[in-house]
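To the structural biology subgroup,

Please find below the input and predicted structure for Copper chaperone PCu(A)C, which we are adding to the shared reference set this quarter. The sequence is reproduced verbatim from the submission form. If anyone notices a discrepancy with their own records, reply to this email rather than editing the shared folder directly, so we keep one authoritative version.
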Amino acid sequence: MTAARQLTAAALGAALTLALAGCSSGDKDSTPKGDGRPELKISGAYVPQPPTKEMAGGFLTVRNGGDQADKLTSVSSDVAGKVEIHKTVKQQMQRVKSLSVPAHGTLRLGRGGNHLMLMELERKPEKGQTVTFVLHFARSGSVTVKAPVEATNYTPEK
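Predicted structure (tokenized):
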């Protein structure tokens, strides 16, 4: 019985060794680039100076160079008690729980479209200041972004 167990253990060990060897190759060029996860980059963030002290808008672009989609699930800010994620449908704002960031795609938050609404402002953002956003993503975790406050009628170059 002891010899049979030793033989079985040796066979299992050999099978495991072969399986592990098959999963990895010594050729570095055959290893896929990246790990298939989202690869997010945030750009173009800004907050137009609001005309009143009640609320403000936030705009930015999220580019995903990764193989998996992600979702913007919530946002917080240093100047607002609450930040809502909005999409615009037929020229009407709708609060949503999340916005998708497609794999190898872009999520744009801009005037007239998807955007952030800063509510319960603790201070009115003034041109020349900076607003900090913490963007929370389903897969990528939290990303902190510094957004300059621009003139009320500011429109970024495309």
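Summary notes: The two ends are 77 Å apart (CA to CA). Residues 59 and 111 are 7 Å apart (CA to CA).

Regards,
Lab coordination
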